[in-house]
Structures are given as structure tokens and as C-alpha cells.
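sorry for the late reply, my laptop died twice this morning and i had to redo everyting from scratch. anyway the thing you sent over, i finally got around to it. pasting the sequence first so we're on the same page, its 684 residues, then the predicted structure underneath. double check i copied it right bc i was rushing
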Amino acid sequence: MYQATHLLEKNQDYVVFEGVMPTSANLAGSERQLIYTDMVLDEVLAKPEIQSLPAFADTQLAKDTMRKYMRVSGAGSASLTISYQDPDPQHAALICNEIVEAYLARREQFDNERVANLESWLSPSIDLWKEEVAGHGRRVRELSKAAYGFDPTMRVEGLENDLSVLGSLRRDLADLIVEESILEAKIAMRKAGGKDIREVVKTLPEITIPEPTSAEIARYVSSDGEVAKHRGLLADREKKIRGMEDAGFASLRQDHYEDLKKQADELRKQVQAAEKVARDRAPEVLQKHAMELAQRERESQLANLEVSTKASLASQEVQLAELKSKRSILQQEYDLEKGRLEQKGGDAADLRFAQEDREIAVGILAKLNERLAAIRTERRRGMTIQTLAAAKPPNKPLVPVPVKKMVVAGGAAFMIPFLLGLLLEFRSQRICDASGFDGQSLAPVIGEVARLPSRAGSSKRQRVFEESIDTLRANLMLSKDTRDVRTISVASSLSGEGKSSVSSQLAISLAKACGETILLIDADLRKPDQHAIFGLEMGPGLTRVLSEDVKLEDAVDKSLGDLVHVLPAGLMHQSPHRLLNSSAIRDLLDQALAKYRYVVIDTAPVLAAGETLAIAAETDATLVCMMRDLSRTDTAIRSQRRLEAAGANVVGSVFSGVPYQQYSYRYGDYNYLMAPEANQPAIK
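ok and here's the structure:
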């Protein structure tokens, strides 16, 4: 940000009369209110070169922007600085000088009006004292004629000393009368000045309100009562619809589900109709509110000026009351002294008193004329405030290297993505460790499976992976709750959670442990993987067996040897829901169990494929697979609830994707030696 500064000072020069055009001792405090008013800022914003600046593109906020970046301060009792900040140094200087120009124009207008009002209110006092002078002149002439025949200048015993005392009182009284007359003129000028201020405000540019922007209209529409009510009802219906879909009740309560959808469609139409009505009336309402706000702001500023004027007026009225009180006391003393001398001096004293009264009136008239001449003379010297140094485009910003701001901004730049990632991670509720199952409504973890190595071989990672599968098999087969199971379905909530890898490797581990042939069935008809894992042909597969086109023994691939036989999924020729029904699955399992010791079934994701529920309901046990840093708690709970509602026996969860180092740290890496056997079958 660049700051341009315009320096002003009091005009303390004078032509003849010093102190006739006074200025406030606190220049910044007295002038700040005028500089910040609409009457100054409106003139600045009305200029085309100011309107074209990017800082004032939003006309509704232009004055607020100008007040925000403008500073008015005092540089001593006789100086005033007006500063403006802007990212462009040229613009900062331009705006600063335009503000000062508009302010000085208003200040000159007010000074001229003040002088004109003072002159107009002094003129009646001058005319009054002209009449007083003429009247006292006539009184002197009459007394002179009445005293003809004796020496008007004869000395009266003791009269001279008394007249000197009376003269002193008369001079003090005359000074008070002059001061009182001038103060009365100022007070009368201020009382009339309030009306002048209002007249000046009426000449200000008319308040113009721009057309509301699309964003403002959108905010108005969103806050409209009818729109909010219909949106709330629509959100409630949509929430109920999603709840039925997530719980799998949409097909069970089809009528209620369709009725909710119809209600939602009708509410959408009502929302659109309410939004159209609100959008049509938005421009008029927004402009009306903006106009009322601008008028209240202008009235508030005028009220502040009037309060300041009234406060100054009250101070002058108190001062005037004090002067009148002093004059009253002096007048009483003067009248008593004058009455005493009249009794003592007779006609000569009356003549002297008349002459003295005439001299008083002449003196007061002379002082009033001198005051009026001084005001007219000193007004020609120029304004009471003048420019000392105009604003120039600054060469350096306010802070050349904003180290603190850069540190704060840099820290925020680093922290905000971290906090956002932390928030997203917290909201996603991803499972990153087996301990995350504690306290959740999930089946217990009966096996943690190490991450599948990218390449097969005899490396440590491969051995640890195989050991984790063997541990899963041992936990499953040795538990008293699952030792008698023969059919196992392996499921997951979503795709990519390791169910295909676990089912294939579990089948191999079972075969090695029991020494009998195991049947692995790929029941994921939508996206089958088992034929690709073992490098087999797709063949007729499960789809042809279920549709009774091919017998089971003809569809099973036996090329891997006598340990594991694989039944691929086959190419889908009709809906999987129609193929995978409960009776077909039961018949298939009965045929398989007649020949195989165990049957392992790789199923489709539970949340994406409803046919998995039918398969899980017909098997002895179901394992739910979850992948580290991928699976989420909410999806795992939903899939397990669906399986249990369908009648599946969910015996446990399998936590896959555990890093090699973490698995070795938690369970150890206990290697062993094994004699090579040439005839041992190998399945990779």
C-alpha cells in the first residue's frame, strides 16, 4: 500500500487587522467532521477520473472504501494532514488531492457565508447607533441653547474629578456594548446558519442507487421466507429418500418410496415458483433498502453537524448572558453616578452629560464600523486554511518489506492446506489401523493381511504376506464358532478393498492346510478378477452354470492342479439379480460341497451390488474386507447391517493393506527352513 499526503495550514497572515478571521486551536478535530461528510465525498466520487478507478468499481461501497483508506490528522496546532492509501501510488496522490480540493471548496463556501451573515447582522446595530449619535447630538444642541447667557465651560466645584470617574465607567460600558453587539450578531448568524446548512445539503448531488448485482439478488432470494420454507420441506423429503436408499428399503416399500419422490418433485416446482417471485421483486426491494440506508446516513451526518453547531451556539449564548450581566451592573453604577452629578452640577452638568453620551454613541459606532471594515478587509486575504504541500505519488510503500505479514501469510498458506486435509480426513473417517474398530458396531478383526507385494517371489515381503493369510485361515478354522464352516463368502463395502486378493489367497492357504481340493468361485459378475489373477481363460463360467446351460464340473477350471479349482465368473448375458437368486445359489453350493472340502466365493461390493446379499445369506460364514487408508467407518457399518439384515453370518472383518514394516513390528518376522520337495505343487 502506498500513502499520499496533502499538508495544509492555517492562513495566519493578515492585511491590517490581526485575529479577525479566527480558526480552531484543534484544526484536525474541527475539520475532520466536514472532510468525512457526504457533501465532500460525493463531489469527489462525481468526477469521471475517480469513477474510473478500480477501487470504486462498486459504487454502493465507494464512500465506505474512501473513508476506510483516508486519514485526517494534525501536524501541530496550526497544520492539518489529509492522507490516502492505495495499491497504486498515482491513484493515491490523485484521490488525496481531489479530496482536499473538494474540502477546500466547501470550506471557502462556508467562510463566505459566515462573513456575509456577520455583515448582515452587524448592519442593524450600526444603523441603531447612528440614530443614537444623531439623538445625542440634538440633545447637546438643545442644552446649549438653554444654557445661553452663562459660560457653558465654567468650572463647577469638584465636578471634574467626578466626571473622570464617570468617564471611566462610560468607556467600560461602551466596550461591553460593542462586544455584546458583535456577539449578538454572531449568535444570530449561527441561528440562521442552520438553515443555510440545510440549503447547502439540498444542493448536493441526488442519491443514486445502482442496479443490484446478480449476487445480491441471489442472496435476497435465498433469504426469502417462502423460498426458505419450501427448500426446507424439499430437503426433508430428499433426506428421507436417501435414508430409504441407504437402508435398502426402496424396493421393500416401493409405494412409499415413489410417493416421497412425487412429493419431492412437487416441492421442487414450488421452490422454483417461489424463487421466481422473489427474483422478480428483488431489484425494487433492494434498491428501496439501499436508498433508505443512504438517506439515513446523510441525515445522520447532518444531525452531527447541527449538534456541533448547537453546542458552539450554546457556549456563545452563555458568554452573551455574562456580558449582559456585566453591562447591567455597570449601567446601574453609571446611572447612580450620573444622577448624583446632575443634582450637584445643574445645567452645566446636564450639558456635560449630554456631550459625554454623544461621545459614547460616536465611539460605539466607530468601533462597529471598524469591525465591519476589518472583516471586509481581511476576507480579501483568502481562505482561513491553505495548502502547504500538495500530495505527490509516493516512491516507496508504507512497509517496503512486510516481514510480519509475509510470515503470517506464509504460515497460513502452509497451515490452511494441512488443516483442510486434517478436516477432510476427520470427516471421511477412513480406517487407518485395526484399533479403529474398537467401539464401532463392526465385526471383530479376525485377521490382518499384509500389503500384497508388487512382484511375486521368495522375498521377505512375499513371505510376510503369505504368513498373514495363513494366520487368517488359522483364526477362521480353529475358532469354535467357525471351525465347522465349509462355505465362505468374502465381501467388501466398495471396490478396491482387497476382497479378490483375500479370497484367492485364502483358498490357496486352505488347500495347503487340509491337503484337499478347494473350489474358488468368482461371483463378482460385474467386474470379475479371479481369472486374471490366476491367468485363466474366462470359459463358460458361473453365469452358464446358473442358467443351466453348462454343468458345474464342465465349467470349473482345473488347470492349476489338484489343490485349487476355479470357477470363473463368465460373460454376463442377463441381469445378475436374476441369475444369483437364493435357490440357484443353494443348488450350486450343494453340488460343490458334494465334491470339494471348502468353497470360497469372491462376491461383488455390497453397497454397489444387491445380489451379494443373496450369496452371503446362503453361505456358512461371511468375511467383510476393509483396506487400510481407503475404507470408511460409515460405509463398513452400512454394508455389515445390510448383510445381517439379509441373514448372512458375518463372522469377522479382514483388515488388508497393512505395511510390511508395521506387520513385522506388531507380529514379528519368524523365518523357518523347509526341505525342498520336487513334486510339491506351486500356485502363485
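The chain is about 60% helix and 10% strand.
thats about all i looked at so far, will dig more tmrw
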